[in-house]
Design a protein that fits this description.
Elements (H helix, E strand, L loop, with lengths): L4 E6 L6 E7 L4 E6 L4 E6 L5 E5 L4 E6 L5 E5 L2 E6 L4 E7 L7 E8 L5 E7 L12 E6 L5 E8 L2 E6 L5 E6 L4 E8 L4 E10 L6 E7 L5 E6 L3 E6 L4 E7 L5 E7 L5 E6 L6 H6 L6 E5 L14
Length: 299
């Protein structure tokens, strides 16, 4: 088996890098800097980063089938035309909660955009509890609220047979599973799938590989975990040279590269000096497993 290699490929520091998604057509990694209020696109061939600034913290970005992207930004779902740098609002959520914002999101296999909210942090990973909800933007631009009482809505993905939805509420320190009805988009039967150990810290973003195993980025844990949903057991740990690992996705020509985002917010100067690559994006190769292409929003 090839040896694992970890390389910092995006040295531009994100305050909170998140929501990476591979765009095959352009050979690019698209991601957000939440508190930096920007959407970024790193070209793997040229190594250049293009950036669009937005007017609020941006929790996630996903591709749109008809072109462009969809954002979960502030408390809004919105379309982004990256070339024209224009944002067009679609729908507003959590109108009764002035202190909320969107966080992580992902598109399901049918083209719905799932994204959740949380209270704005007082310090990294410190929030008013149970202020968030999980929403889905349907293809007709209507919004479905799935549940509330969420602390920090975070990583999400679907099993390869589309029958299970995986979800992280970070302050539960766990990955949960739900039954998923792809036709209706309904979720049910919530249960614990994996409970993190103390050293693994806070579960953040996640993705699935082509073998149906989950990869979970551990915020303040400096690692990604590979978890078998069938057994609920951790089967691999990959440690990174930064503590604030935030999310991950597979990319590259054959989806054999795992990209991991990170953050610098909340680190003091001494910490930053010890971890000069904090806030960068890392490419992990030699894992011996591939990912699957991301789904695109259908509306």
């Amino acid at each position: 088996m090839a040896s694992i290699k970890i390389e910092c490929v995006v040295k531009d520091k994100s305050r909170i890098g998140e929501s990476p998604v591979w765009e095959e057509k352009h050979g690019c990694l698209v991601y957000v800097d939440i508190t930096g209020q920007k959407v970024c696109c790193w070209n793997a061939a040229t190594k250049q980063v293009k950036t669009v600034h937005v007017d609020a913290p941006v929790g996630s970005v996903v591709p749109r089938r008809s072109g462009g992207y969809v954002l979960a930004v502030g408390k809004r779902f919105a379309f982004l035309d990256f070339e024209k740098e224009t944002v067009t609002d679609i729908a507003l959520v959590d109108q009764d909660k002035a202190n909320n914002r969107f966080n992580d999101g992902k598109v399901d296999p049918a083209g719905r955009f799932f994204a959740g909210t949380m209270a704005i942090e007082t310090r990294p990973a410190e929030v008013e509890r149970q202020q968030g909800s999980l929403y889905a933007l349907q293809s007709d631009h209507s919004v479905v609220k799935h549940f509330d009482q969420v602390d920090i809505s975070n990583g999400l993905d679907w099993s390869l047979d589309h029958k299970t939805f995986y979800y992280i509420d970070s302050l539960s320190f766990a990955v949960d599973a739900f039954d998923y009805d792809l036709h209706s988009g309904k979720i049910s039967n919530r249960r614990l799938m994996y409970k993190l150990e103390q050293a693994e810290a806070i579960p953040d973003g996640q993705c699935i590989d082509a073998e149906g195993k989950l990869w979970v980025a551990c915020y303040k844990g400096g690692r990604v975990l590979r978890i078998d949903p069938e057994t609920g057991k951790r089967i691999q740990t990959v440690k990174l040279p930064v503590d604030m690992t935030t999310s991950c996705c597979f990319g590259g020509k054959d989806y054999s590269e795992l990209y991991v985002t990170s953050a610098v917010d909340g680190m003091d100067e001494e910490w930053k000096q010890r971890q000069p690559q904090a806030g960068g994006i890392f490419k992990i190769t030699g894992l011996g497993v591939k990912g699957i292409p991301p789904y695109s929003y259908a509306g």
